[in-house]
Amino acid sequence: MGVSLEKIEGKCIFKIDDGFTIVVAGAVRDELAQGFSSCSEMDVDLSAISDFDSAGFQLLISMQKEAEEQHIPFRFLNPSQAVQTVFKLFHFDEYEEKPIDE
Amino acid sequence: MADNPIIKTFLIESADLLRDMEAALLALEKEPQNPQMIGNLFASVHTLKGAAGIVGVDFIQRFTHDLENMLDRIRENTLALTGEISSFLFEVYDHIVHLRASLEADGEPDENLIAEGKELTKIINQHLEEPTPEAGALEEPESGNDRWHISLRFGPDVLQNGMDPASIINYMGKVGKVNGLVTLTNRIPILDKISPENCYLSFDINYTGADNRDEIEEIFEFFEDDCEIHIIPMEDAPAAISELIDVLPEENSLLESNFSQIGSLTTEGFEENIQTEIPDKNDEDTSTELGDITNNDAEVEKAESSEELEDEKENAGEKPKKVLPTMSGPESQTIRVDISKLDLLINQVGELVIANSHIRQQAMDSENQELLKTATDITRLVEEIRDSTMQVRMIQIGSSLARFHRVVRDINHNLNKKIQLVIVGGDTELDKTVIEKLSDPIMHIIRNSADHGIEMPEDRVAAGKPEQGTIQIRAYNETGVIVIKISDDGRGISTDKVYQKAVSRGIVAENQQMSDHEIMKLIFEPGFSTVSNVTNISGRGVGMDVVNRNVNALRGTVDIDSIVGQGTEVTLRLPLSLAIIDGFLVKISGRFFVIQMEIIMECFVLNKKEREELREREYFKRREEIIPHLRLRDIFNIPGEPESEHMVVIQSGDRKVGLMVDELRGNIQAVIKSLGRVYQNITGVSGATILGDGSVALIIDAQSIIGKIENSLYDVEAGMEA
Questions:
Q1: B196 vs A92: CB contact, 8 Å cut-off?
Q2: How far is CA B697 from CA B390, B637, B680, B688, in A?
Q3: Per-residue confidence (pLDDT) for residue B297, from 0 to 100
Q4: pLDDT band at B469, cuts 50/70/90?
Q5: pLDDT tens for residues B19-52?
Q6: Which residue in A32, B310, B431, B457 is a FRET match for A57, CA 20 to 30 A apart?
Q7: Using a CB-CB distance cutoff of 8 angstroms, which residues of chain A are in contact with residue B3?
Q8: Of B72, B294, B53, B263, which is closest to residue B175 (Cα–Cα)?
Q9: Higher per-residue pLDDT: B295 or B124
Q10: Which of B165, B189, B192 sits opposite A54 (nearest CB)?
């Protein structure tokens, strides 16, 4: 499990690798929470998530709400197969598929 | 794979279901028409299929799906449960057991298992294709009653309890059709407030796929305690739907929008409904406005603004609402507890017992009466806690013994024998760990009895015995121990044969004088087997010595008695508890020993004359009884001559022995500490305990001491005979 954060001129790109499930949810939450400061815009790259469940889904929505509260533009990008499976089950379509640097 | 908490839960639940399935199969072998057992069999497979589907174990779900269809036909009386099909179902059961084992080990079945599954499925499908006895007699399934609205409001613990809403929705899609779904994320907090292991999700679903409510409820069976579930047949909409909207905690407008989106609510139907339908109110509240929620406990005014509603949502657990039929069943009388939590509790109680003995010792030394009284009160409470904690780990032995019915059944099948297994005293309780570790030893003893003890039916009849042989497992409590006797009415064991075999294997010297009892015990020597034909069931000579070792490791003993032509009895004796015992402290030349309280019959001081007499004789007379004795200091090679001596008479089974010690020091609670591997095989000692002053006392192993005395007695008898 890994969360990486890249900042380009105030725009934050979170990338979550490997498993994003209840097993690592606590640790991921802590890492995500730390990276939230000083972002003027936020993208979350979901392309490298290999395993995903409801706990992971909740954290993503939690991030989305945090960004809304801080009035930060926010996008989910390029969900992996594992993420798309859950998104489909939950009829959740608030994501985009495009190259990261756009 | 078994690290995944969801899979862990499934493995536990599936073990129970497989036990139920096997019990039903065994019962149906004797009574193929028993409707309750057929129902039980179907239910366990059906639930197993459902659970596998929910947690995503597709290979088990697929296999049990076809099996369930076959069992459904049996249940509907359109497929007869013949002996052939019954045997086949045992094979199917074994296959599922292997599938479960492969899930636990590797996560996936290997090629052989997959191939086996395909073969079995082929046969299942052949049975499914068999024509029904009365064509056309089947009822047409109800149609048109299979659309439902389902609202799920998951509780916080559902993820931690091993359920994943995503898996549940996925499974629903497999067994039916999700026509429409909305995920409610309103309860999910922002990042610095969220507890990631809690569940905040809710779903409103329009669903097709079940003919009746029971089928839908079965989908949610595994988490009904962790979720508020509302199931409404669409034929009852829109009245029931509008009632539901009032009951659910979310804002009505949100719910209306969601329900419309998924097709559970049409605008016209809803508007019509709110004109004419007023939800049931409490009697004392006939004048409330539409939209108010009331119940017996509190009134809640409809929120005027969305902020108020947000606050209400946060207090969702306390929000009063009308009660609609939900799935919460009667409160469970049992809860499942992780065994590691129990082990931790017992360790802590053990430390408490030791610490308490420190306090008691210091209270006694201080001679402060108030303090001593308090220490005594606390000791009593600690003893009660100790007993209660020990009790928690005790389970009835019957449930573990029941599995041996299957063992005997298989042996009957494989060897063409007729053997029945009778279990007596199944409600006798024993520590869970001890029961688990006894499973293999008992299995081997039963297999020995069935394979080598019980004769073929025709031989039994020729010998004037009933055609059917009997193996009996009897469990009962004796002082301080549990006794398990496994006996058969077979051909018995010949001591001559045993002796000859032992000589031929060099275990004993030729012409060595031995009692029958000693000869029987040779069976426990490694590499011993008197069986001329080794079968695949037993007889490789690796069994009884392992049985002996396993039982000894539990501080128990094994004995064997046999009469040729009549049968054999193997007796296991085990301590009731592995952890804490009531003990009696004795002293020998400054060293402390503990004797288990339950085996002590009496203690008395020895006068000088008696002490001199006892030096000359190995027996003493007490109340017309002749009892052998020994000095504990001789057993443990403790030098010195004490100023006084006492006799402690102990009893194990029907054997009494007197132990001579220097001083009697009174009752203690002894927390048993292992001696470690180096000292494990010391005769006469089974463990140690820490006393109140920090010193160590060894715990006497009465069984081995009694055994020592017996052997010396047999030497005496042998000498007398010679």
A1: no
A2: 22, 16, 15, 6
A3: 35
A4: very high
A5: 999 999 998 988 888 888 898 899 899 889 988 9
A6: B310
A7: 23
A8: B53
A9: B124
A10: B165
Residue of B167, B182, B191 with shortest CB distance to A91: B182
pLDDT tens figures, B317-338: 433 443 333 443 344 467 777 7
Helix (H), strand (E) at residue B181: strand B177-184
| Mean local confidence (pLDDT), B227-253 | 87
Q: What is the largest CA-CA distance in chain A?
A: 36
Separation of alpha carbons B501 and B479, rounded Å: 36
Strand, coil or helix: B329: coil
Phi and psi of B644, rounded to 5°? Answer: -140, 160
Token pair for B55? 């947690």
Q: Which residues of B are less than 8 Å from A90 in CB distance?
A: 166, 169, 181, 183, 203
**What tens digit of pLDDT does each residue of A66-97 get?**
888 888 899 999 999 999 999 999 999 888 88
From B174, which residue of chain A is nearest by alpha-carbon distance?
A: A89
CA dist B118 and B470 (Å) reads 38
Alpha-carbon distance B271 to B129, whole Å? 51
**In chain A, which residues have their Cβ closer than 8 Å to the Cβ of B58?**
none
Q: How far apart are the first and last CA of chain A?
A: 26
Task: Give me the residue from B167, B169, B188 closest to A58, CB to CB.
Answer: B188
With helix as H, strand as E and coil as C, how does B108-141 read? CCCHHHHHHHHHHHHHHHHHHHCCCCCCCCCCCC
Tokens matching residue B216: 């839908």
The answer to whether residue B610 scores a pLDDT higher than 80 is yes
A54 lies within 8 A of chain B by CB: yes
Q: Which two tokens stand for residue B609?
A: 């004359």
What is the C-alpha separation between B385 and B94, in angstroms, rounded?
42
Within B455-587, where are the H helices? 457-462, 495-504, 516-521, 544-553
**What residues contact B196, with CB distance under 8 A and at least 6 apart?**
A22, A25, A26, A28, A29, A55, A58, A59
Q: Which residue has the higher pLDDT, B285 or A61?
A: A61
Phi-psi region of B394 (alpha: psi -120 to 50; beta: other; left: phi over 0): beta
pLDDT score at A58 = 95
Among A22, A25, A5, A24, residue whose Cα is nearest residue A13:
A5
State how far residue B99 is from chain A, nearest Cα, in angstroms.
23
Give the nearest chain B residue to A28 (CA atoms): B196
Structure tokens at B24: 């039903």
Query: In angstroms, what CA-CA distances link B678 with B211, B523, B700?
Result: 66, 26, 17
Going along B450-566, which residue ranges are E strands?
Answer: 469-478, 481-488, 557-563
Q: Please determine, for residue B575, whether its predicted confidence score (pLDDT) is greater than 80.
A: no
**Cα B143 → chain centroid:** 43
Given an 8 Å threshold on Cβ–Cβ distance, is B191 in contact with A62? yes
Of A53, A54, A66, Cβ closest to residue B190: A66
Round to whole Å and give the CA distance between B569 and B613: 39
Contacts of A23 in chain B (CB under 8 A): 3-5
Q: Please name the residue that has the structure tokens 């000088």.
A: B608
Q: How far apart are CA B72 and CA B257, in angstroms?
A: 40
- The secondary structure element, H or E, covering residue B456 is none
Task: Please name every residue paired with B603 in a beta bridge, in sequence order, or none if there are none.
Answer: B648
CB contact under 8 A, A54 and B159: yes
Count the residues in chain A: 102
Whether B659 contacts B680, CB under 8 Å: no
Q: Cα(first)–Cα(last) distance of chain B, in Å?
A: 66
Instruction: Choose among B5, B189, B201: nearest Cβ to A54.
Output: B201
HSE, side-chain direction, 13 A CA sphere, residue B527: 7
Which residue bears the tokens 């129902």?
B39
- DSSP lists the bridge partners of residue B431 as B394
Name B670's bridge partners: B581
